[in-house]
Amino acid sequence: MKWICRQFEFAFPRPALLMGIVNVTPDSFSDGGRFFDTAAAVRHGLDLVAEGADILDVGGESTRPDAAPVDEAEEFRRVLPVIERLAGRVTIPLSVDTQKPAVARAALAAGASIVNDIAANRTDGAMWREVAGAHAGYVCMHMQGTPQTMQQAPHYDDVVREVDGFFTERLERLAAAGVASEQVALDVGIGFGKTLEHNLQLLARLDSYKKQGRPLLLGVSRKSFIGKLLGADIEARLPASLACAVWAAHAGVRIVRTHDVAATAQALRMMEALQARRH
Ligand code: YH5
Questions:
Q1: Domain 12-118+135-267: which CATH class?
Q2: How far is the CA of 142 from the centre of ligand 1 (A)?
Q3: Which of 26, 48, 199, 201 has the fewest CB atoms within 10 Å, counting from its CB?
């Protein structure tokens, strides 16, 4: 199985890929200037590469439940300078975490190779045309509702089956839009329109998605469901985040999205050393 992201090509099986999270958020120190948040995000991205990241995921829009949407001009100002600067300084693929086709297009022009679409384009084909035209990688993530409404009353009859049906339908629509299946990674979207129980069921049954024949990406790092299950504050969720990463990679997840690249790499490399010795 291959994942093609423009000039980059990942061939599986291989050790799980680490996608390091680079959030570009307003700088609380500067008086309206944009310099410091750009510089801090770039520095953080370089640190994550030194920790062993295989991909950097750059995002300018908070997608936490209830977060206000960021307008397009603001998202451009946050994300583009960071992608431009990182593209000139790292050799690994850059991903842009955006729901907006215009932001994706500009990020691809600035050197990004992957579009991480948490909305998976529920509205129209514009995002998919950008991905098809650039031969970019595409992360197709499941979300019920929108970031503003998704946690109000998530409901599924069978969350594992419904997410599987979503993947099947989206892979068909993507193909029709000119996005080859080899460009696509799938993501169940932990925390996006899911209760604690839904998140746990998805994690418990990750092996259900192997038959889709596409690499699975998973983002659990520091998420609220860990706090709900275990009562841990956000800064104390690393141990459970690592447990989920190891569990997921053992179940076949190929790309782990994380804030904590070095710690996650250590946990995954240990699991993989043991996995390689099973017979
Ligand atoms: C994801 O799962 N998640 S942004 C709240 C937290 C901690 C972390 C309350 N983008 C994903 O990371 N893209 C995000 O603590 C993503 N998969 C993909 N593909 C949310 C996030 C977070 C939210």
A1: alpha beta
A2: 12
A3: 26
